[in-house]
Amino acid sequence: MASGDEIPSKEEGRLLHKDVAGDLQVIASLIDMRMTVLEEEESLQVLREVRSLIQSMALAHGTIYEGGSGGRISARRLMEKLMKSTRLTHCTRTWIETVVDAGTVQLPAGVAVPLALAVSECIRESVVCSLKGMTEGRIIVTVREDDTGFTITVADSGRSGYDMVMDDDEAALGMMVADHIVHYRLKGILERDAGDGASRVIRFPKRAPAR
Asked: Thinking of the domain 10-205, which architecture would CATH place it in?
């Protein structure tokens, strides 16, 4: 590995992402252990949210490692991991069908972590707000790329309307965090669209200066 002021090689940088992902998984496991001895629902909810964010970062770093040293990652692979992780963390009694439509889109590795945090919050809002109280539902994550940038849509078959997040204060706060991440880290926008169900649309340019 590089030492001192040496610039790490692409392979060393890739291995660093593997180490970070492992460290974050350890932290998530410690939170799981702590949750087993807690009974207060409010405390458990806070820890679930923290664990979800940590897990999303771990998945992003892990996907960067798996993608090799080319500086690009599979959008489909990242979205599938986020969908599965978020559903398991915020499990409800609703049976949810999940679909990822990303084709062969490759995302810049530099946007993986902030994008993962924003997308996981959008999926969480679908699970705990839009589909709340329903016996079954569907969440579709779509990723598209054009000449100017990327568009990620998280759509569901649940309740439509812009006031749906008011049912869950933490979900509302999570979406505020997602909006902040998209605006300041990805230099993009996060919009909601009410139609048949509800959707959240993230748009950001290809040259997003994520740090």
From this structure: 2-Layer Sandwich (3.30)
